[in-house]
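Below is one such protein, fold included:
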Amino acid sequence: MGLSAEQIRVAMDALAAAEPAFAEGLSRVGYPPPRIRERGYATLLRTILGQQVSVASAAAVYRKLEGLVGDPGDPHTILAASDETLRAAGLSRQKASYARSLAEEVTSGRLDLDHLPADDEAAIAQLVRVKGIGRWSAEIYLLFAEGRADVWPAGDLAVQIEVGRLLGHDERPSEKLTRALAEAWRPHRGALAIFTWHHYGAGPDTDAAPV
């Protein structure tokens, strides 16, 4: 499970006490709501389906899969489905390949989503071995589905934009700079990532009251 509202609140209070720019941002938009996903194969499959398409489109494909193969959350159903069936559900050839790769890793036991390494980098390394799962997808999974408090998706465009805005940079910081800046924000970087998405959605000049 992802970080709870209380965990986010405690982390953001600590960050706000250390960095006035975060305190100002928090006063503008308030605490972000939790972003929680179910741990396991189904969430990673949804991550693959959601790549480069809208949330609504990814949900539609998942529903089509349910109608054609049964429970998409069972990796055996993907392995048993034909290429034609997967394409009929809306998966491109590439995404079908990625979905099969994930299902094979899970059913073979090579990827045990119930016992990923406790070290974040080691867990990311295991996840990115799966075709179609890059570092960003692995970080989002660990943050939303496992609630790992210090995961920092520095490659996320919105995270970069809002870090720059919050700190008053003239230009969006690069992934390398966004990662370097965040060293000072350990061990609360996961909550800060969630806050940057919240701040991005609210807009930089919002007058929304804290919640």
Q: What stands out?
A: The two ends are 22 Å apart (CA to CA). The domain at 5-36+150-202 is CATH 1.10.1670.40 (Endonuclease Iii, domain 2).
